[in-house]
Protein 1
Amino acid sequence: MLEKSDRVKRLSGSERSQRPTAIPKGAIRLDLGEPDFATPAHIQEAAYRAMRDNLTHYGNAYGEPALRQAVCLSLKRDFGVERKPENVLITAGGIGAINVVCATYLNPGDEALIPDPEYSAYADSVALFGGAPVFFPLKEDFHIDFEAFEKRISKKTKIVFISNPGNPTGRVLREEEIRGLARLAAEKDFLLVMDEAYHRLIYSGARFLSICQVEDAQNRSILLNSFSKTYAMTGWRVGYMVADAPLVKDMVAFHKATTICPNVPAQMACAAAAAGSQDCVETMRREYEKRKDLVERKLKEIKRLHTPSCEGAFYFFPRFEHSLTSQQMTEYLFGKGILVRSGTEFGAGGQKHFRIAFSTSMENLEQGMDRLKRALDELA
């Protein structure tokens, strides 16, 4: 009997890896961080066209030139910054990008700082490649506690991972937070990786600043993104990173060794997404905002539940007063036919929280939130 490797064993203990796979009939899924929209037709057509044109062979390890150029165009359009294709590396989804960063820059014993709570894939990847995840607490409103953050920085700190907008918190970092993190990256000599996968899903007048707009952070930072959430393309598995050309050259070695290149027709679809009309993005964002308003209103009606506002992404991360742990609450709600994500999947700081995704239909949200209220009222 073959034994699993130590690196895989490190993953098997994470709460992320233990979520139930058998979904009860009639359950309402508020756990999926995935758009329910179809990929827009013009993006699908670009993939068909690529296949008809026989773009079905090995591609460039850095990514297809058309897509790298389209990413540069999107950076100019969205943020007013100039980048060249040499600053772009196309990856097999956002997860692929995270793994490339960790494999490239972490040696055994090196540390990566991660907010608590935060997207759990960062810690999994750090552990997978022999690094040590080091968590720092956030403020009560999920913004950066710089005093706590600086206390965790050591000579072993090589990388800092942060999602903005936040998963699971839905908060958008303020400009002074982004600039403060960039300043510390330069002073303390670490690599700042900002995951901006939800940057087009911003609500309620919140202002978003991309790390690529902080020019003096360019040689100490990586913008990590994907097409999954913005364009409803989770199954297409294409992501990208924007960084100084020497960093891109560093990272392509592992990327090429493990992937060769991402799916070429999928890349051509993403080029059409990034360079084409953005009307579909705004249409989806407006629908998400309607859903957000519905869920927020329903959450306020539930006793013993405290819910910070959602400024971006498609998540709420309410805190409950009931005498259960996050895992116990998730299991209780599962038994009531409501699927949410346990707060502690995202770190110890998520204790007494659960995550709700409003990336499903208004009908599902209406039913799910009414069911959630009944279930929590029974506990009260």
Protein 2
Amino acid sequence: MEPALREEILSVLKGATDMTIATIRPDGYPQATTVSYVSAGLTMYFGCTAESQKALNIAYNDKVSLTVTLPYFSWEEIRGLSMGGTAKPVTDPNEINRVSELMLRKFPQRVWAHRRRHALMARRK
């Protein structure tokens, strides 16, 4: 990947708070959901309960697509990302702690929520 492109991607990831992630339901239909996320480099993390439709879809098929868009006032200002990859639950205790810290730093107003959620990560393919 060209360094300038990588910097643009990282800039968008840093500047946005939400992404829309599309998963595949067991009946074959796609499902798109907007979630808040954090990132470490090009790896993105979001939280959801293990019983959520997103988590069940990812357990069925780990392929995902997602979009991230920075806030904008006019169409000329639109900056965003669209990518595909795979997602999986975060199970390593050290990684869970690291993701929790990233979430608490980015979303301090949501301290209560991180304890009830399971982290999942999406990686670009």
Protein 3
Amino acid sequence: MIALALVLRAGLFPLAENKHGDAPMRALIAEWMNLDPHAAADPRTYCQFGPLHTTLMRPFLALDPFAPRSSRYLSLLAGVAVFFPFLRLARRLAPPRYAPLAALALAVSPLHIQASVTASSEALYLLLMVLCLERLLAALDSGRAATFALAGLFASLAAVTRYDAWIDFPIVVVAAAWLWRARGIAGRWLGLVIFAAVAASLPAAWIAWSARVTHDPFFFAHYISSDHAQLAAAITARWGALGARVRQVGIWALAFVGTMSLPLVVGAAIALRRGLPRRAGQPLSAAAELVAVAALAPPALYLAKGILLLSFEPLPRFAVIPGALLLPLAAEAAATRWSARACRAAVVASAVIFSAVVIVIAWTGRARVWSGAESFAPITRLDGEDRALADYLRAHRQASDRVLIEPLDFADIVIAHAAGVPAPLTVSLAITRHPEPTLAATLARTGARWLAVYDAPPGTWFPRFAADWPADTPAFGHWRLLRAE
């Protein structure tokens, strides 16, 4: 299974490009820190992201200056390395004969492949979560303080990679104390205290540093809440309250299928029913219940925020970690209900069909790629006109030139990253995302040497500038590019 995972990820790596979610922005931040080491001294440079992922990306960008490629090396390594602790974790949660089926599902998972070949943080985060939970279960069985500390270290690293861990680990500690209460938990209280203390160490340092420099210890939380609230408000305005709620459920459901495969989503539902009170049959083990709690706590909170408050917009990649953690339980339940051979065939077929359908829907029949469908796919690719604009800027822009690209569903970040424009010189990231009333005023205020606007919907800037726009400027599809003299 490890060889299959390596072949799929290494084979698709040259075809994939940073496009969705946070991938291009994370790469721009890491590149910015390499260009200006002083930027790393300000926690605000990390925007809403945990600091570990972009920090670990920096050596790869230093070795290979082509950031669209080198920013993805860390994810590729983490996306393959995770299979070693994942198999150990799977054997702790279910009989060893079911571990290969769980690993197969992860190996062919479209969304985990996407995380492994782009600069998003999910591949690294999943690796750290699996390492943490596998060592925590070992510690709860053995009671060894050193193992609790090692599990806490992995938890702490995970917590400064993605903030989902800040939801997860307090709940995990409480759940562990409850689930192991009948196993002489008194002898493990010290271990859980050690785990919690070590897990909290790096987040506490991050909060303290943020408070000292920015005078706002939770500035990143404000970024995250604001971004998702704005996205959710836009969706609600377009779909209505009921439509937005139904859409939330649909995204989560498809994302779990894209992570786990349809047969193992059904298997997970069968397994989780065994954890309900007063259910007949073999109950879940304490280890399985603990991992299920760790898997489901963040998405349960996000789904509640999305459905009840309409203040959260889910992205498909948010299902990668919970879906992967549930795979060992799902594999056992599915293979017990059907046969292991049938499950293997169904898992592979599900992954192939799911990938083919979302790619065809995303890449055909539209002027631009449908990002909503492509975000479920194993690889993401730039729109042809975006790539052409980025290639031109990369070839003709001087190192000190500022570039202003119309923020077209965040295409400005994608194009700037692909064109090699550092974040401080990307006007929409460093200065403003809004134009002035006229072309001349916009260029004067921003100091942009290059201005790219989109002359068709959903672009809105070109009509404002059309009267002053020169007639002989280059065009790339619907992108118009102006070089200020």
Protein 4
Amino acid sequence: MTVETAQEQAQADSSRTGKDCNYFDFLAIAKSEVDQQTIAGLVEYRPGYVVLRTLRLAAACIAIWAVALTQSLWFLILAVPLMVVVQQEMLIWVHEGAHRTLFRSKALNDIWVSFWFASPLGVNFETYRLSHMSHHRRIASADDGDRWTYELYIRGGAFWRVVAKALLGFYGFSLALKKYATGRYDRMRPDNTYPPTIRYLIIALLWNGAFLAASVAAGRWYVYLLLWLVPLFSFAILITILRTIAEHQPSDYEGRDPITPVIRTTLCSRMERLFLFPLNFNFHIEHHMYPQVPFFNLPRLHSALTERGLYSRFPDALQRGALARVNELRRA
């Protein structure tokens, strides 16, 4: 059976069952089916590629700023969604760096991510890393640091309340104040903190000071708010919530414990890949199984799982479209 045929079969089976598979059931069989030699061949570092992708993203960011500060203000209509794309990719780079897959050197990995991606967004990298590791170790439990996103109840009218709170910045400011300003990374033990470091604060002020200074120099101080802060505290958070719900919220979720540990890989459209799933983030169950595999090799890992029939046995671990899944969940 080819990869494409298996995917199509999985989608057909999924539409018939409408059930979720427990991630640990999938994991137990997958670990016995995929040999370690295959995984070892997928774990590699490509520092040159990382540098190239970083500089390309930085160039795109600078170009968007240049247009917003020098051209007609009507260009903001185009600049804002493009900046949303840039910020989303930056956030996923932070995630990738948290697993230390960018450079063989831990120090270089952390400095690179903090300077180019995390600090400009106001994200204390080490706080994020410690919190995110709990998502991998204790997924769907009360200790899961990322659970706040996919435990949001979205049935019926609750969905629009979540969207409104995200767009108004409620979740964004709460996250900034409760997590990154205090360094609180342990959901259940508030005394466990990693307070912002001097290096993080300097880099964050350097980037954001440059953005604000450029806006003031161009006579458009408000562009810093409209192009950088508003998307960061609203659209970026909304996208994160929708993506994580699509990946992790069970179909039978009633807004209370227990939450079934569910992970879904998404066969997404180009538009979703652009806004929701940069850096192959849609191969999510593959990433959870083997977080040491870098993003550029996740498609190969997905093919290995498909060829071994994992998605035929667990068709509900595969979905076609994150927004379609969210729509199903809110109408359930």
